[in-house]
Structures are given as structure tokens and as C-alpha cells.
Design goal:
This protein starts with 8 loop residues before the first strand and ends with a strand. It is globular. With about 230 residues, it is of the alpha/beta class. It contains 7 helices and 10 strands. The chain has a 6-stranded mixed beta sheet with strand order 6-7-8-3-9-10. The protein has helices at about 50-55, 80-85, 105-115, 120-130, 150-160, 180-195, 205-215, and strands spanning about 10-15, 25-35, 40, 65-70, 70, 90, 165-170, 195-200, 220-225, 225-230.
Length: about 230
């Protein structure tokens, strides 16, 4: 558990050009993410993903200022950037599995790269997370050998391992039924209670489900290259 009173993520007048035919342009994004915040960002074109998560990790070119844990991505050394990214968990869309590694190695790759955690500690934590999403154990074998719904749950585990300060969820419900999302909701609530923050980005309209699952979440709609608070 980590207790934190810092602003976790700050966007100040952030703009970017479209970087590929899969990503939309964003203009003048300004918002803060505090400990315990859940931001639900809905976009309307499933073929054009807003690069909010890449921006949050300082992984693409932009104008404006982006700070994670009060550190400006453009003002810190690469080794510090690497350490900070070790405190960010993420579900990627499309999935970021490395086909040459088994599922467990994929799940723990970022933690082994960015931290000095013992293998036994990682194994214990991943098994506890697996139980939270109703898996008996971490799936064995390479990603292509695993069923879609089980593999999606393994992605959730990967995003939450290591008690990150910030969890970025890109279309995390893709490939599973809404009634299977309870495990993900449990992970989100636990992290929020420990002063982490979650940004959930999706083209799906999950407003009614979100309202039942989470109190005090902030819902945004992606419109005209910017996000607008809904309601």
C-alpha cells in the first residue's frame, strides 16, 4: 500500500499531431489526476485511439507540459523516466504481448525491468491478483495458446502488478462480457483505496455499469480533439 498526496498526473495545454493511422490528434488537453481518481474517457471512433495513455507515459512528441508525480517528462533524465514508468501499469490496445515469452514472463516483464523485486515476491503478488479476477492460476504457455477471455484477464493482472501509482486501461473490456468485468472492477477499487489513480479509455458506452460499480468517477467524452467532462 502507498499513501500519496502528490498530483499523480498533470496535463497542461497538451497537443499532439496524429502519429499513425490508428491514433487521433488531441488538442489543448488540460486536466489533473489526483490520488484516488478514476477518469473514464469515452471516444466515438474505435478505429482512432486518442493517445492519452502514450502521452501520460511521456512516450510521444507533444507540445505543452505533462507531469507524472510532479516530474516533467521533458525535463528529466532517461534513467529517471525508466524508474517512473515502473510505477505505471497499463492494458494496451492492441495488446502488447511478446510472442516469444510465456504469459507470466510477459506479466512481470516491466517489474523485472524497472524494479529490483525478488522473483518470489512477484510470483506471490501475481497469484493474488489472479484470484481477484477469478483465475485459479497464472495461465501457462505463450499468449497465442491462451483463450481470449483468460488472456484479457492476464492483461489486467499485468497492469496492476507492483502497486502502481497510475493505471492506464485502454479498452480493457474488449473480448470479454460485461458480467466478467467484476474482477477488473475489484482491482480498480482496491487500487483507488490505496491512493492510486486509474484512467480508463474506451470506445464502449459503459456509463451505466460504471455508475453502479464506482462512486465519484469522472466521465469524459472525447470530442473535437479534446476531452469534455460529461454531465
Amino acid at each position: 500500500m502507498h499513501k500519496n498526496n502528490k498530483t499523480i498526473l498533470e496535463f497542461n495545454n497538451v497537443s499532439t499531431m496524429s502519429m499513425s493511422n490508428r491514433e487521433s490528434k488531441v488538442t489543448n488537453l488540460t486536466f489533473n489526476v489526483m490520488p484516488g481518481d478514476l477518469l473514464f474517457i469515452q471516444y466515438d471512433n474505435p478505429d482512432l485511439i486518442p493517445p492519452v495513455c502514450d502521452l501520460a507515459e511521456g512516450l510521444c512528441d507533444y507540445s505543452g507540459v505533462i507531469k507524472f508525480m510532479e516530474n516533467d517528462w521533458n525535463q528529466i533524465a532517461p534513467d529517471v523516466q525508466s524508474q517512473l514508468r515502473g510505477r505505471i501499469g497499463r492494458v494496451f490496445n492492441p495488446p502488447g504481448w511478446i510472442s516469444s515469452l510465456d504469459v507470466y514472463s510477459n506479466i512481470t516483464l516491466a517489474q523485472r525491468h524497472h524494479t529490483t523485486k525478488e522473483e518470489s515476491e512477484l510470483r506471490k503478488e501475481t497469484e493474488l491478483l489472479a484470484a481477484t479476477v477469478n483465475l485459479d492460476h497464472i495461465p501457462e504457455g505463450r499468449p497465442e495458446m491462451i483463450g481470449t477471455d483468460v488472456l484479457r484477464k492476464a492483461e489486467w493482472i499485468s497492469a496492476f502488478v507492483g502497486q502502481p501509482y497510475l493505471i492506464l486501461l485502454e479498452h480493457p473490456e474488449k473480448g470479454v462480457q460485461v458480467n466478467q468485468l467484476q474482477g477488473l472492477a475489484n482491482l480498480v477499487r482496491k487500487s483507488l483505496s490505496e491512493d492510486a489513480a486509474v484512467i480508463w479509455v474506451t470506445p464502449e458506452n459503459l456509463a451505466s455499469w460504471h455508475e453502479k460499480q464506482f462512486q465519484n468517477s469522472k466521465r469524459y467524452i472525447m470530442q473535437n480533439e479534446n476531452i469534455k467532462l460529461h454531465g
